[in-house]
Specification:
This protein is of the alpha+beta class. The protein folds into 2 domains: 83 residues; 150 residues, C8orf32 fold (Roll). It contains 11 helices and 5 strands, in the order αααααββββαβααααα. Strands 4-3-2-1-5 form a 5-stranded antiparallel sheet. Helix 1 crosses helix 5 and helix 1 packs antiparallel against helix 10.
Length: 285
């Protein structure tokens, strides 16, 4: 019986070590991927947004580039394009004309320009997404920007508007009056930053549970970066997997030392010992 436990432990231990090494390697790869994406976006935003501009001028510069920028590539099959790859969303005309990917392009450039931004989903009564816009933190207020139609929401007096302001039908009509053919059903009665309905756990009332456990969770984190940038999502996923495997490996090590009494190679202890021996001056007698 004891031998069987030892054999099972060795299989788990070796398997855990292999998975941990794999996850560490994939995490390093994901770090390089995310770093290259950020460098690309910094270079792109430097070419589009004047560095000494005010936050509002930066928003205007990005919207102007989206509206009047150079000729973009046109894909023969737009459905095959990666909608979560910043380089793709910034360079294909079809993606800059769709609300979700146009907002992604805006958010990536705005974030790389030093602005605080996030996605905002406009929902139907049954909580399906009907339009996607962006919110930008300007003067301590989350101002609504519509990257698809390339404008900042403002009232007749030129005051920039928040989503709370736009819940007023008169203010909303005022804000969109200068945009030809703007759909009036793109109102702000029901909004969200994360559409939980996309997660196949509807029967568990996930939004209600999250609201109870952590009020304000929807706005507490930049979900758009995690959910809409593939490189960052992959980095998050493998970093989390690495941490979980480290905890699992620690638990297995504790079980081996305290319960099974199996002698094993203690990596950190031996590394510490080797480092101490390397840095300590030898005593000469």
């Amino acid at each position: 019986m004891q031998e069987s436990k030892h054999r099972m432990f060795r299989m788990l231990w070796r398997g855990s070590n292999l998975l941990l090494v794999l996850c560490v390697m994939l995490t390093i790869y994901a770090i390089g991927w995310e770093f290259s994406v950020r460098e690309y976006l910094h270079g792109f935003s430097d070419a589009v947004v004047p560095s000494e501009s005010s936050p509002e001028e930066k928003v205007d510069a990005i919207l102007h580039w989206m509206k009047e920028g150079p000729e973009r590539a046109v894909a023969a099959n737009p459905s095959a394009l990666s909608k979560r790859d910043p380089e793709t969303t910034l360079n294909y005309q079809q993606l800059l004309d769709v609300c979700g990917t146009a907002t992604n392009a805006f958010l990536n450039l705005a974030r790389s320009s030093g602005l605080h931004v996030r996605r905002l989903l406009l929902l139907t009564p049954d909580r399906n997404t009907k339009h996607v816009v962006a919110e930008v933190l300007l003067d301590e207020r989350w101002i609504v920007v519509d990257p698809t139609y390339r404008f900042i929401m403002k009232d007749a007096a030129g005051r920039m508007l928040t989503r709370q302001d736009l819940q007023n039908p008169r203010v909303f009509a005022e804000a969109v009056s200068k945009v030809p053919n703007y759909p009036m059903d793109y109102n702000y009665k029901t909004v969200a930053h994360v559409r939980v309905a996309r997660i196949p756990l509807e029967g568990f009332h996930l939004r209600r549970v999250l609201d109870y456990m952590y009020p304000g969770w929807d706005e507490a984190f930049d979900w758009s970066l995690l959910l809409e940038r593939k490189s960052f999502f992959v980095l998050f996923l493998f970093t989390l997997a690495t941490l979980i495997l480290l905890l699992w490996r620690s638990a297995l090590g504790w079980y081996a030392d305290r319960r099974l009494k199996i002698p094993r190679f203690h990596l950190w202890r031996n590394l510490l010992r080797a480092g101490t021996a390397f840095l300590t001056t030898p005593e000469i007698k």
